[in-house]
Amino acid sequence: MREPKENGSLSITFVDTIEAAIQQAKQAAGEKDVTVVGGPNVRQRLLIGS
Fold this sequence. Notes:
single chain; mainly alpha; two-stranded antiparallel sheet; about 40% helix
């Protein structure tokens, strides 16, 4: 895993799996909505659940 990149209003964390991305995003967001950004491969993995 790479180190997070941050500026005053944005933090980007690189992870190895979709599950890790969603879990970490939900923890960081608390009660707020979560958005996972990525290319076609990410979308496909989210749709098939892996």
